[in-house]
Amino acid sequence: MLERGEVANSWRNERWDSLRLLTPNFQSRLPGLRYEGPEPDGYMAMSEVTEFIEAFAKVSAAPVRTGVNVTSVQPADGGYRITHSEGVIQARAVVIASGACNLPAVPPLHEAVPAHVTQLTPFSYRNPDQVPDGGVLVVGGSATGAQLAAELRLSGRPVTLSTGEHVRLPRTYRDRDVLWWMDASGVWDQRHDEVEDLERARRLPSPQLVGTPARDTLDLNALTSMGVELVGRLATVRDGRALFSGGLRNVISLSDLKMERLLATFDEWATADGRAALVGPPERFEPTRVPERSRLQLDLESGEIRTIVWATGFRPDYRWLDVPVVDAKGHLQHEGGVAAPGLYALGLPVLRRRKSTFICGIEDDARAVIGDLARHLAGSG
Prior knowledge:
Layout: E1 2-3, H1 9-13, E2 29-30, E3 33-34, H2 46-59, E4 65-66, E5 70-76, E6 79-84, E7 87-91, E8 94-96, E9 103-104, E10 118-120, E11 135-139, H3 143-154, E12 159-162, E13 172-173, E14 176-177, H4 178-184, H5 198-203, H6 220-226, E15 229-231, E16 234-238, E17 241-244, H7 248-272, E18 297-299, E19 305-310, E20 314-315, E21 338-340, E22 343-345, H8 362-380
Parallel strand pairs: 1-4, 8-22, 10-19, 11-12, 11-19, 12-15
Antiparallel strand pairs: 2-3, 5-6, 6-7, 9-20, 13-14, 16-17, 17-18, 21-22
């Protein structure tokens, strides 16, 4: 196993200080290891996630070589030639486990932002102390954008959140964590070959969730109650002005509708499975409060906005992969984690199931992929 940094490098070095897992601790489980601490309903902080992954490395006795940077993987001699910072390896098969969040996905329009406006990404942001005084525009309304908008607003800064499509969820539903429902009801177990629009499912933004000791819900209503101003999707930056879509009301309505449909699915499952008496009563939530008027533009030259935080998602980095399995958008082309004979992937969105990118979802995917890998090796032996 080759790791460019340390074990748990991303959690150790590439996340902001206050970040916690979105999944509750009781869902932190890997083969031979599970959370056994005093707060099963809590959410691990960065340091705790790092310790958990380090513990798994020891439990599994994984042969990890740290500080080894892979610079090229290319077909060779019926297998693959891996060039790295310490030499070359010839392998019959390769598993890509580098994840989907290697680089911030910042849109090209960032180049038109005036030079005096500080620009940050979730990779460069650590805490509010590094952000200049004054207004902040957070672009992106998924989990990352919602969390950073809340943190910056609580630091006393005026915050404007630009959001397009987003996934609204309550932190808890009927006395259980909403992700317990996703797991227990089988929603997370839906296979990739059962998903109606797989490409869209793999592009879905992460739900507006945050892990806090109080198990708070962090949706747009919570943000506006803090004083965050909502605007539509950032369409372009022109002549020093940020121009926003006028479709905020529509995307909010669609997000509310999808949430209600999902909660109804949970209710139906609880009744059919005989669980209704074991959880709280069905709940419905206040519709997202839509501003009567949302601004369609911001003058970035006026000084109102001193900082832009690009919470516009992440993308994988396959610049080292010299195999024709990456599409024009930089995404790995694969079928259930099989990219090519002897070339496999793990840890990507909806790789084999909807839970593929969660700690509790990796084991099922790994067993299936390793099954394919073993058959490949047996056939090529």
